[in-house]
Specification:
The complex is a heterotrimer of chains A (about 900), B (about 180) and C (about 450). Chain A has about 900 residues and is α/β, with parallel strands linked by helices. Chain A has 27 helices and 38 strands. Chain C has about 450 residues and is mainly alpha-helical. Chain C is built from 15 helices and no strands. The chains are: A alpha/beta (about 900), B alpha+beta (about 180), C mainly alpha (about 450).
């Protein structure tokens, strides 16, 4: 974080600057429409330099957990978020949700008004209604980690004895807390330290996949692998392919119902359980080898939090034997509520609830359909919903209160590791929303500001002004993470005997990898973010195995009817390699009925099949052809390499077979006197998380084109992550522009619109481009993107506020592509020239590099032999993509590392 | 001056015209012309017309214009605005060949056509007296004509008319100015 | 050489017949019907172009990787057609082949109009068509110049040179006949216009001699243009590293394919003109027979090109080349491969038979097949090169839209309108060259007797 802190204001200046940026934000245009009179600075703030961004630390929220953020503010507008490197939960990189949160801030569909019975009302009226809220009061929230909200809720429950607090997360942490209670006698959070585990055995647990833990897991995993003599091994058994399985040493497709048996068998190897009958030879071999690995090297057994508690407890018990310090247990970071959704619905349906206050949750959409939440809701006399969007739930409530976006809010929250963050507003609220912390006390008749509430919560540890400012400046409260808990293992209860093969097919439910449980459905960046494994955008599909597809006689995109538990839904079928036989994967989050123009009307709603009792799997399902074909847009149609070795693999410590010296050229070489920028991407560390893709869009004003244009093949991502399915694993290849020194594209351009710069960049001159597209035809890597329409004008009306003012917005008919974030190079150059020194190593980072939690992207000056990128170039794993074309790419790759030992 | 432009004799056969031309030249006339609807073999020999200016002019046009094109490309790429294009050398001679050739062909053609028209005195500044003649339209159809201009030193109205009549034309007219 | 024209033809009948087409149009109604159809298609051209300018090039089905589709297919096809006109006219003139005299005028017109159609597409296909002139070197305040290493710039010069030189060749060759038109017309306006166009031509021996020198020299130059222009077009593909494009055989392969498609269109036009204007005596079956042989010969060259191209892909052992070869024959666009193989190679084998060469309907069908077949081949070469190139991750198909077809049909309309105007107002057949041929035949006859 050294480079970012350099740009931070001193703490003395901090509040002054905040006030100034907020004043500018007011000018930038709030919900009230264009200002009638412009107000110039009366006194120019001392250290605001127009055109130079400022950086502030805060947090965005994901399932209630704080995502540590360092926000880039241009003239009062947040334009780009990155992980706050000072914070232990985000010490490197970020994830797609964090990256995309800035666009949510500017979402024009975000709720902006208090609504009562469909009519705009005032906050005054809302506060009056809240103060008179009838008993018995029920409070329903998503997962809560905020100490302030926790304090307020406790206060509320103490002063309103009729009140009860229910918590519901559609995805959340499953039964993890109950499992720890069974295994250790108390509810705990399990923190996996993947950098300390020589062997990781995952049974259905998506450690590296999307979710609140992804950032730290990917970071730790990468640290363990980076240039390791003996890289850690990952054994994955799963029903449906995940990003964890993609990088597995050996992956085993196992039906969900068989996973408990697998865990039992593994437990048996450690004398903790009875070996179950009925495992196949292949499965037994997998177990035996994984167990041997665990025994020899030690490591963790991560069992999916969606499996039965006894199964998880067994996994925890094995890990207690083998895991060493790779498993850390702490008090739960999220505050447990007093009840869940099912018991609340029961009370509601029985007419025992006088009023329901729903805070930042959307149960009318996310509740399992068999609970029939909407019907129960109708029996509640007073229903109040507070949320970011006027969603399905808002529609069923008498009152809807707009919440302020995290980036507009004062607040606090804990990250997954428990370290708290004081959230500070990056901009004055664009709309009429206020923070949850300012709403809750209104039930007790209190009118408070969120800032005062947060300060009151932290009056102890951050009582002094210095401590408070330091917490704001650093974006974390030092030492606020819960300490590790020492536990005694209790005897492991026996795993319930396997129920035997289920009747019919088995459905497993998964959160959507890009829009999660549906909460990000109105975010165009995330909608157009390719799902990591099948690269589908703007839709959800039902994954089936090729065997199931053959039996059913369907191909990709065919509509099939999934029937289970008396309900059915029509879904597009999608054949997925590594999918367990007779398993159908349904993704949550689509089929929204309300909640934004982009969110509604696309995909199918998997919640309608989801049972409350067993929210993650459903047996006895049947499939039938529904007739018809869905138009599914993908950004990558082929996932085979077609005989090419695009992501080569070497054994640990081994070099690439070819020489790393590039082939000669008949042309005399060009010399690059000053700098020679280059990039190296380590394919061994890339887990395919997509954070870089969103970061690139945010940094470079990359437009979203929509499903129809993706179907034609016109997506605009400057950086894409290719995925290739091989027989044993899935390999990811992030592809930015190669900045070839012998660039075919430059030779093709008739008007010098793409030329080579003096520092080796392959430059695109937008205002010289006339759109012949020759460069793209000639580009072997197909990294060039063409504005077939004026995509930048097709963005939501508020999107321009997010744009990076340092990057040109491209118009119709011009080519564009990755620039190595040339605007950042130029900013660094200007700074360095002002200070009369050369650009230092590490001073220029690309957006994708900053975003990568694995640190797989290395950028810098190849003329400097000591730079990280030069050292990476010298790595014996270094290779050039399509070396045979002799384009001398500036972007090179490091081969993936796999040891073949013990694979099938 | 009331002097006519000259005399115009019409023949119905190309061989007869060639014979007439030969005899006219032998009679010492210099300012006379043969008009035919198509190029007639042997006519130029009969006229002893041996000009060869067009081809060299074509060649000169091609070399000068093509050379200028080559020089321009070199100057643009090496002197005026050197750019690193695909790591290729600034003076990319092989790449310059095709534009040079194409521009050279235009130069050669335009210069050649211009030379042909200029030497032929085309287009004339005003309508040529012959084109006003009633039967001269057959010169581009099926008949062959011989015209002798009054400005010829040997021209004498009566004698020349008699001479032409002696060549056996199907018609003989005086061409007014 | 045997006689091509009937001994009944005289200088007068040639003049009469050819000038009558213009001065006393024999088939006014038929002409108007054809013109109406062509104008309709020209309307489609303007509609397609108008919407293209308003909405942008996104109305076509293009994407990345298939950056080029029908736009460039049509360019290559049109410019290829033009080449036969030049070849028949220029090469055969230089080689002293008399039979070209009945064909060269309209073949040259075809060249010019086809080249105009061809030149439109590269302009229209630009993302910013209004800035096409940036590809020309002209002094400007920003000191920006074209990039001369780009095959596209070579094509800019090729097309410009080709259109300029072809026009001059056509026009210079027409001056004597324009003089005939001037002399034959009775209408003052027509006489004035033809008179201006004829530049005062009086057919003197000196006129003819100098004209002959210039004409033959331009013919030689134009013939070289045939080779270089289509080689330049081929370089647009061969110059990039794209599999299925990056091969040295492309320039000659493109040139002979161009002549092949052009001969086919010459046959089509000859048959139509012959029928429409009763020119059977000037455009005889012998002419068609020779053209058919030429079609067969160039078709066999095309077949050799296909073979050599496939062999090179196989012989290279390059995985990308092999992939493209496989995709061409069995991939998504295999219809274009098998279609062009059938139409360009199999069907023309019928022309070995004299009876078929002299059957006007059969010849028409086979020539039409070759024209369509060459279009399919251009489609094959361009689209299958792009749609699956190096990285399987970026492979993507291409589907045309009605706007691309609209522009293609519209360009045919543009060609037809130009050609019909030419047929109506300018001498369709070179009269003076036919008369020269008659004179030569008479002399031969005289020698025999």
């Amino acid at each position: 974080m050294d480079d970012e802190t350099a740009d931070l204001p001193s703490r003395r200046e901090f509040l002054k600057v905040m006030a100034a940026s907020m004043a500018m934000a007011a000018l930038a245009g709030c919900g009230e429409g264009p200002p009638s009179e412009a107000i110039p600075y009366v006194v120019q703030p001392e250290d605001v330099v127009p055109g130079r961004p400022r950086f502030y630390a805060t947090a965005t929220l994901f399932e209630g957990y704080a995502q540590p953020v360092l926000a880039e503010i241009h003239d009062g507008r947040p334009t780009k978020l990155d992980g706050n490197a000072l914070h232990p939960a985000a010490s490197r990189g970020s994830d797609p949700f964090l990256q995309a949160a800035v666009l949510e801030l500017y979402d024009p569909d975000r709720s902006g008004e208090v609504i009562r019975e469909g009519v705009v009302a005032t906050w005054e009226e809302a506060f009056t209604a809240l103060a008179d809220i009838p008993a018995p009061l029920r409070l329903l929230t998503g997962s809560v980690t905020s100490p302030t909200l926790q304090r307020q809720i406790e206060d509320l429950l103490a002063r309103r004895p009729d009140a009860r607090w229910h918590v519901f997360e559609p995805v959340g942490r499953g039964l993890r807390a109950q499992a720890t209670e069974l295994a250790f006698g108390q509810r705990l959070d399990v923190h996996w330290r993947l950098d300390r585990a020589p062997v990781v055995v995952s049974l259905g647990e998506d450690l590296l996949g999307p979710g609140p833990d992804q950032m730290r897991h990917v970071r730790d995993w990468a640290d363990a692998r980076r240039e390791a003599e003996r890289p850690p091994r990952l054994w994955v058994a799963e029903a449906t392919p995940s990003l964890t399985g993609a990088g597995a040493h050996r992956r085993q497709a196992v039906s969900e119902y068989r996973l408990p048996m697998m865990v039992s068998a593994l437990g048996a190897a450690f004398g903790l359980a009875e070996a179950p009958p009925g495992l196949t030879e292949e499965e037994q071999d997998w177990i035996a080898r994984a167990a041997a690995d665990l025994r020899n090297r030690g490591g963790i057994v991560a069992v999916s939090s969606t499996l039965p508690v006894e199964v998880q407890a067994l996994g925890l018990a094995i890990t207690r034997q083998t895991g060493g310090d790779a498993m850390i247990l702490t008090e739960p970071v999220a505050v447990p509520g007093q009840g869940g959704l099912a018991d609340l619905v029961e009370e509601m349906a029985a007419g025992q609830v006088g009023s329901l206050l729903i805070l930042d949750a959307n149960p009318a959409y996310t509740a399992p359909a068999d609970l029939d939440f909407p019907a129960a809701l109708e029996r509640v006399p007073l229903r109040i919903h507070a949320g970011l969007y006027q969603d399905e739930t808002a529609l069923l409530c008498q009152w809807h209160l707009p919440l302020a976006h995290a980036l507009e809010s004062w607040g606090d929250a804990r990250a997954v590791d428990g370290t708290a963050i004081i959230m500070q507003p990056m901009i004055r609220p664009l709309r009429n929303g206020i923070e949850a912390a300012a709403i809750l006390p209104a039930v007790l008749g209190q009118r408070v500001s969120a800032l005062d509430e947060v300060r009151a919560t932290w009056a102890g540890p951050l009582g002094s002004e210095d401590a408070w400012r330091r917490a704001l400046h650093d974006g974390l409260v030092e030492g606020s993470a819960p300490p590790p808990v020492a536990v005694q293992v209790r005897p492991v209860p026996p795993v319930p005997p396997p129920e035997g093969p289920p009747q019919g097919l088995e459905i497993v439910f998964r959160p959507d990898p890009t829009i999660w449980d549906g909460r990000f459905a109105n975010n165009p960046w995330l909608q157009e973010l390719p799902k990591p494994l099948n690269k589908i955008v703007w839709d959800n599909v039902a994954l089936i195995s090729s065997g199931t597809a053959q039996a059913l006689g369907v191909r990709n995109g065919a509509l099939i009817q999934v029937t289970a538990g008396g309900r059915s839904v029509n879904v597009p079928a999608w054949i997925m390699p590594f999918q367990a036989e007779d398993t159908v994967t349904l993704f949550l989050g689509y089929g929204r009925r309300q909640g934004g123009r982009l969110a509604t009307g696309i995909g199918y709603d998997a919640y309608t099949l989801r049972p409350a009792a067993s929210p993650w799997r459903l047996t006895g399902a049947s499939l039938a052809r529904a007739g018809g074909q869905a138009r599914i847009a993908e950004t990558q149609l082929y996932h085979e390499m077609g005989g090419r070795d695009l992501v080569p693999v070497v054994a640990p410590g081994e070099a690439m077979p070819q020489p790393t010296e590039r082939q000669p050229s008949i042309y005399p070489p060009w010399t690059y006197e000053s700098y020679a920028w280059g990039m190296v991407v380590d394919t061994d560390l890339c887990t395919g998380c997509n954070a870089c893709v969103v970061a690139c869009m945010a940094e470079n004003n990359v437009p979203v084109v929509g499903k129809d244009e993706v179907l034609i093949g016109r997506e605009m991502h400057w950086l894409r992550v290719d995925s290739y399915d091989l027989s044993g694993d899935t390999r990811f290849l992030p592809v930015p522009c190669m900045h070839c020194e012998k660039a075919p594209c430059e030779v093709g351009c008739p008007v010098n619109a793409t030329v080579h710069g003096p520092e080796g960049l392959n430059q695109m001159v937008y205002n010289r481009c006339i759109g012949t597209r020759t460069c793209s035809s000639y580009c072997p890597y197909k990294v060039r993107r063409f504005n077939y329409y004026e995509y930048s004008a097709r963005q939501p009306e508020t999107a321009p506020a997010q744009r990076n003012p340092d990057v040109t917005v491209r118009g119709r008919g011009v080519m564009e592509k990755c620039t190595y974030c040339v605007q950042r190079i130029n900013a660094a150059r200007i700074q360095a020239e002002m200070e009369g020194r050369p650009i230092a190593e590490g001073e220029v980072t690309t957006a994708c590099q900053d975003a990568c939690p694995a640190g797989a992207i290395i950028f810098g000056d190849l003329n400097n032999p000591d730079s990280a990128v030069s050292r990476a170039r010298a790595n014996p794993r270094n290779y050039r993509l399509l070396e045979e074309l002799n384009t001398w790419p500036r972007t090179t790759y490091l081969a993936a590392v796999r040891d073949r030992e013990g694979q099938a | 001056m009331n002097r006519p432009w000259g005399l115009l004799a019409e023949f119905d056969d190309s061989d007869r015209l060639i014979e007439a031309v030969r005899r006219t030249r032998e009679a010492g006339y210099t300012e006379f012309e043969a008009h035919t609807p198509f190029p007639v073999e042997g006519l130029a020999d009969a006229l002893d017309f041996q000009e060869n200016k067009i081809d060299p002019l074509h060649l000169a046009g091609g070399i000068v214009v093509g050379g200028a094109a080559l020089l321009l490309q070199w100057w643009i790429n090496v002197v005026d605005y050197p750019l690193n294009i695909g790591g290729r050398p600034l003076a990319a001679w092989p790449a310059f060949v095709l534009p040079t050739f194409e521009i050279a062909t235009v130069g050669a053609t335009v210069v050649g056509v211009a030379a042909m028209l200029y030497l032929n005195g085309l287009p004339g500044r005003k309508t040529h007296p012959l084109l006003k003649m009633e039967r001269f339209h057959l010169a581009s159809d099926s008949r062959f004509f011989l015209s002798i201009q009054a400005s010829d030193p040997v021209y004498e109205p009566r004698r020349t008319r008699a001479f032409l009549e002696g060549l056996g034309p199907v018609a003989l007219d005086e061409v007014p100015r | 050489m045997s006689r091509l024209l009937s001994s009944e033809e005289t200088y007068e009948t040639v003049t009469q017949q050819v000038t009558d087409i213009t001065l006393h149009p024999p088939a006014r109604r038929r002409w108007w019907m054809l013109m109406a159809l062509s104008l309709l298609m020209l309307g489609i051209f303007f509609l397609s172009t108008g919407w293209l300018f308003i909405a942008g090039v996104g109305i076509w089905g293009l994407n990345v990787p298939v950056n080029w589709g029908l736009d460039i297919v049509n360019t290559v096809w049109w410019v290829g057609i033009g080449h036969a006109g030049t070849m028949i006219s220029a090469l055969l003139l230089v080689m002293g082949q008399q039979w070209r005299n009945s064909l060269n005028r309209f073949a040259e017109a075809m060249t010019l109009f086809a080249a105009i159609c061809a030149a439109l597409f590269p302009i229209l296909h630009l993302g910013k068509p209004e800035l096409f002139y940036w590809m020309f070197p002209y002094p400007n305040t920003m000191d920006l110049w074209p990039q001369f290493r780009s095959p596209l710039v070579w094509d800019v010069f090729s097309f410009t040179a080709y259109i300029t030189v072809s026009f001059l060749f056509w026009y210079v060759g027409m001056i004597p006949d324009l003089a005939t038109m001037r002399d034959k017309t009775t209408k003052p306006l027509a006489r004035a216009i033809y008179g201006r166009l004829a530049l005062g031509w009086r057919g003197t021996a000196q006129h003819w001699e100098r004209w002959r020198q210039a004409y033959v020299a331009i013919a030689l130059i134009t013939f070289h243009l045939v080779v270089t222009v289509h080689s330049g077009v081929a370089m647009l593909f061969a110059g990039g590293p794209v599999p299925g494009w990056h091969t040295t055989i492309f320039p000659p392969f493109f040139v002979q394919g161009a002549v092949f498609s052009g001969v086919a269109v010459v046959i089509l036009l000859a048959v139509v003109l012959r029928h429409a204007f009763h020119l059977g005596n000037l455009l005889t079956l012998k002419h068609l027979d020779i053209l058919a042989k030429l079609l067969l010969a160039t078709g066999l060259l095309t077949a050799y090109g296909y073979l050599a191209d496939a062999f090179h892909a196989w012989y290279s052992g390059d995985i990308h080349e092999m992939q493209t070869l496989h995709d061409r024959l069995f991939g998504r666009y295999a219809w274009s491969a098998w279609g062009s193989l059938f139409l360009n190679i199999v069907l023309i084998q019928l022309l070995w038979f004299r009876r078929i060469r002299r059957s006007v309907p059969m010849l028409f069908v086979i020539a039409l097949g070759a024209a369509v077949g060459m279009w399919l081949e251009r489609y094959l070469l361009i689209v299958t090169g792009l749609y699956r190139d190096f990285l399987p991750s970026s492979w993507h198909g291409y589907e045309t839209t009605i706007w691309e077809w609209g522009l293609f049909i519209g360009s045919i309309g543009l060609f037809a309108v130009l050609f019909l105007l030419f047929a109506r107002f300018l001498p369709l057949v070179s009269m003076f060259e036919l008369k020269e041929e008659l004179a030569a035949e008479r002399r031969m006859k005289g020698d025999e007797e």
